[in-house]
Amino acid sequence: MINRRTLTKSLGVALAATAGVASADTGSDVRRNRYLIRNGAVVTVDPALGVLPRADVLIDNGSIVAVGRDLNARGAQVVDASDMIVMPGFVNTHFHMWSALGRNFVADGFPYFAAKRATSTLYEASDVYRSVLLGLAELANAGVTTVHNWSNNTRSPAHADAELRAHRDGLLRARFSYGHVDQMPRDAPMDFTDVDRVRQRYFAGGTAFGGLVHLGVCVRGLSQSDEPAFFADMDAVLARGLPVAIHAGQSPPRIVDAADYERRGWLGPRTLLCHYVTALDSDMEIMARTGTAFSWSPHSEFRLGNAGDPRDALLRFRRAGVPVSLSSDATSIAPSDMFEAMRLVWNTGIPWAGTPSAGLPEVGFADVLKMATLNGARALGLGDVTGSITVGKRADVLLVRANDINLAPGGLFETTLVQAATAANVDTVFADGRILKRGGRLVAYDVDRIVRDARTSSLRIRTAAGGILTPPS
Fold this sequence. Notes:
Strand 9, helix 6 and strand 10 (244-247) form a beta-alpha-beta unit. The strands form two sheets. Strands 1, 2, 3, 4, 5, 14, 15, 16 and 17 form a nine-stranded mixed beta sheet that branches. Strands 6-7-8-9-10-11-12-13 form an eight-stranded parallel beta sheet. Helices cover 34% and strands 20% of the residues. The two termini are 34 Å apart. By secondary structure, it is α/β, with parallel strands linked by helices.
């Protein structure tokens, strides 16, 4: 647990913990240049622009400066988008990135929470750097350009510094939500000493790393802390004016009472609730009225929810007018691939006979695309920055090959993205105007080194954990 006595010692470890670890920089040109994306089918997710069957997108110094037909952009590097779909980068609003390298720690009879209990205390600062960078590269490969790093195992200042160094090297837009130490006592409030240190060191100007990363806090909520400790955590967050994220439960009992949260002043656009499968209609109505952000992790809701059907909750959230954003939770539960998340939501987002969802509108292709992009940006307070292809927003843009074998022979563009596309179809990724993936290959990361270092950390953690995780000799 972080306290003032360990702060100085931990800070001294921080640089050593990340020294010599893989950098994302491969020497590739990741500057923000002037680009003209030409002749693509542009799915803007901008309500004023809609879907443009053929259009150009002009990017300059990291911003989208024009969208339209036959743009004249002298001096721009041309990116040919013929036979491609151009869309905004995905936004993942809930990802426990510290454990990305533990994606395959689970087994039959050894599920997510058992694997987390066996390993979470074993992650050193160098391990979380490697894990977060692995996760960021995986996100970029699949077209996710913004992520909410729900850092719920921030074991020391050195660990926090290591995660932030990974964000610096990972080149994606993010919220870093500083969290508790996993498995800390339920009656112990979080120590905000290092939150304040991180805020002053990295976020004194409001954002870090050229405006790409902003700071938040994730608190345990009543699922992992007693009421006095939870209340103390929330008081500390509100006193600092930081965005806060809370797990709201996937199974009974219902641990979040939206009316009580509203009375305490805890709801609003700077609060993000995740899961909340147990929400009553009245809870949903309060969230909609207060503009409280919401993250839905479709794979996790089905895998970890053990009462009822998440389809019912999802459709009722939509009926209440709560904007739904999408997320992946943890890699040992679901892939951080938003194409797969969209497809699962679309396939399960149908009314369920015999439940309150009966007769409600089903989730459509355009709905799901908005959940995975613009709704996610708004949930993180970035709706004016990213989430759609809109003039003035930052250039977080994907090019998806529409003539690949699994997408051919073409058709309706939104349908194609939700129903058929995968990360393998992502040809080009712009993040804040930088090209991170081109021609289907990550060009801004030393992928071999990232994988090699992640494997080293994984083997060390598995060996230390023992039991079912013991690597074969």
